[in-house]
Amino acid sequence: xxxxxxxxxxxxxxxxxxxxxxxxxxxxxxxxxxxxxxxxxxxxxxxxxxxxxxxxxxxxxxxxxxxxxxxxxxxxxxxxxxxxxxxxxxxxxxxxxxxxxxxxxxxxxxxxxxxxxxxxxxxxxxxxxxxxxxxxxxxxxxxxxxxxxxxxxxxxxxxxxxxxxxxxxxxxxxxxxxxxxxxxxxxxxxxxxxxxxxxxxxxxxxxxxxxxxxxxxxxxxxxxxxxxxxxxxxxxxxxxxxxxxxxxxxxxxxxxxxxxxxxxxxxxxxxxxxxxxxxxxxxxxxxxxxxxxxxxxxxxxxxx
Length: 304
Ligand SMILES: Nc1ncnc2c1ncn2[C@@H]1O[C@H](COP(=O)(O)OP(=O)(O)OP(=O)(O)O)[C@@H](O)[C@H]1O
Ligand SMILES: [Mg+2]
What we know:
Bound molecules: adenosine-5'-triphosphate, magnesium ion
Low-confidence stretches: none
Radius of gyration: 21 Å
Helix content: 25-40%
Oligomer: single chain
Number of helices: 13
Largest sheet: 6 strands, mixed
Mean pLDDT: 91
Number of domains: 2
Structural class: alpha/beta
Order of helices and strands: EEEHEEHEHHHHEHEHEEHHHEHEEH
Strand order of the largest sheet: 6-7-8-3-9-10
Shape: globular
Number of strands: 13
């Protein structure tokens, strides 16, 4: 659905390209998380997809069409864009902000009203239509950013550190909610983050950039188990084996050992299970739905 071919950006006067020959496919209805150190070219790559930055070389295809041959303004109406600072118009109501693209698309007032109510409901903000951006919390504003990006029902969404301004606890919840929503809606998503755990949660695939070049592109579990080189291994962190355990539900390592103590919550991951084993000094912890997770089964799962 999104296809980048040899995508390159050389900023005027720069000694080397900010993005160098990046080739990447994001299949329809899937998400790809773009990660890498600060300055490696993530934002530049994203902004070449909706042509807020003009590529120096290479191709961008969206749904089989050459994005570089289309009128950039029209192209952007078909691509949702969510950024960290959200960029809401401060003097317009939430409804007016969310309606931005539908208005540009020339929808009639009744249809716009229905759509605004629908997307605000989707992101869990019904009743916020008449407020102004400054009357919302940072997390609520980010939800409005998502609602606005969804309003014109674009098949493709670009997100640049969309949850950066939210505290860690709310952030996880917001990630889960937005991800579920985008999956249900079948959107194709390219999301930039510098948070490894967030990338693993958000991406069906994860792409790592270094100095503008793509160094590895793989599903999260594969990436964490087999980093392509020392740079990737270091970037993913020495705790990458623990990060990987977060990708599996606790039920993925069932054993038949008897276990005591409070059961794990239904949404617990294998990382939570291991943490509880350490906290309790136990080799098994009970599952809410019966049975238990055992250290033996967990080690076996971690090795797959
Ligand atoms: N408008 C611009 N003009 C010139 N150089 C730019 C411009 N925008 C970005 N750059 C340079 O391009 C390189 C890549 O920047 P980019 O913003 O894509 O990095 P990033 O991976 O998004 O970093 P971060 O994680 O800090 O957001 C950097 O060296 C940056 O200085
Ligand atoms: Mg950036």
